[in-house]
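Annotated sample (chain length 56).
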Amino acid sequence: MNQKSLYERLGGYDGITAFSDELLPRLQGDAQLGRFWQNRGDDGIAREKQLLIDYL
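Output written by the structure step:
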């Protein structure tokens, strides 16, 4: 049984990064969820993005 891991099937680091690059701006622009990013600086958002990538 030589199946690829979920990480590999998601495209590895590059695939997950591309996913988070698209997801975070959509969440920030959402009418209900956008308030969580209103007063965040660029450093905080970058850190959050890295945590998302690491989590996935």
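Annotation: Helices lie at 6-9, 12-28, 42-55.
Annotation: The mean pLDDT is 88.
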